Amino acid sequence: DGGITQSPKYLFRKEGQNVTLSCEQNLNHDAMYWYRQDPGQGLRLIYYSQIVNDFQKGDIAEGYSVSREKKESFPLTVTSAQKNPTAFYLCASSILAGRPDTQYFGPGTRLTVL
Amino acid sequence: DQQVKQNSPSLSVQEGRISILNCDYTNSMFDYFLWYKKYPAEGPTFLISISSIKDKNEDGRFTVFLNKSAKHLSLHIVPSQPGDSAVYFCAASQNRNAGNMLTFGGGTRLMVKP
Known about the structure:
The complex is a heterodimer.
Chain A: E1 4-7, E2 10-13, E3 19-25, E4 31-37, E5 43-51, E6 54-57, E7 64-66, E8 76-78, E9 87-94, E10 104-105, E11 109-113
Parallel strand pairs in A: 2-11
Antiparallel strand pairs in A: 1-3, 3-8, 4-5, 4-9, 5-6, 7-8, 9-10, 9-11
Chain B: E1 4-5, E2 10-14, E3 19-25, E4 32-38, E5 45-51, E6 56-59, E7 62-67, E8 72-77, E9 86-93, E10 102-104, E11 108-113
Parallel strand pairs in B: 2-11
Antiparallel strand pairs in B: 1-3, 3-8, 4-5, 4-9, 6-7, 7-8, 9-10, 9-11
């Protein structure tokens, strides 16, 4: 049963703490992405990775870090430098070569900073 | 600078009637467009897409229309069903070496009343 999994579904963090969100896919997709959604807003790209051991900043990368040590995994760390981390975080993946450009999303993680 | 805009934050439609969701874009380099459906606290689900070489794509109750000269696309749902109530995002992509990058609109919340 192929898909994208994100864990945990809900996460609470105290101010000043780093926290890591998990994203795993078994679709054999090359590219993976992290987005953030705030209430009433669209999806904004945080980081993306097209290949293992390589990743690029998206539109709102400040205060976040990622790693891509395995094709299947793309964890996101929300650091204490992120000024407004409370949001819904979505991970996605896609094939890299050719078109179409469909990205497939995981179920998301809601992060709340207390 | 929002390159993809969904100007209607919400839309209410009676069950059985047609739902029309609109999306405008500014970047003439976009050549592939997608619609996603999202329920609360879940990841977006891919719905339908269209290439810029076409002006219409149909899949069951869902039809996407593209007007390149107006830089406008729309999603028609006929007939609308209560289960269609969700937030709908349009997204656009352009062919570039950076890979399958999508730019999302802000979303339109559709409410289908029984």
